[in-house]
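Subgroup meeting minutes
Present: P.N., E.W., G.H.
Scribe: E.W.

1. P.N. recapped why we're keeping a running log of single-chain structure predictions: easier to compare across weeks, and new members can see raw inputs and outputs side by side.
2. G.H. added today's entry (80 aa).
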Amino acid sequence: MLDISFAELCIVLFVAVIFISPKKFPTLFKAMAKLYKKAKSSLLDIKEEIEREDKFQELKKIENEFKILKNEVKKTTKKI
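Output recorded in log:
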């Protein structure tokens, strides 16, 4: 998911060790994990909503096609 090379990861960890004490790493990682879970959940919700909207638009299109067909059938039956 994340496109981070090993060298970039080492640099990030080195900077983290300098600016954040190692004692705070567990709480930091827990907070990052919670944030990741929340972001992933939000993205899944957004994806589901988009899919629902697409299905709704497709159903509206089908409904309009049925209305057109209904009108055409009425016109042809009136002619008969």
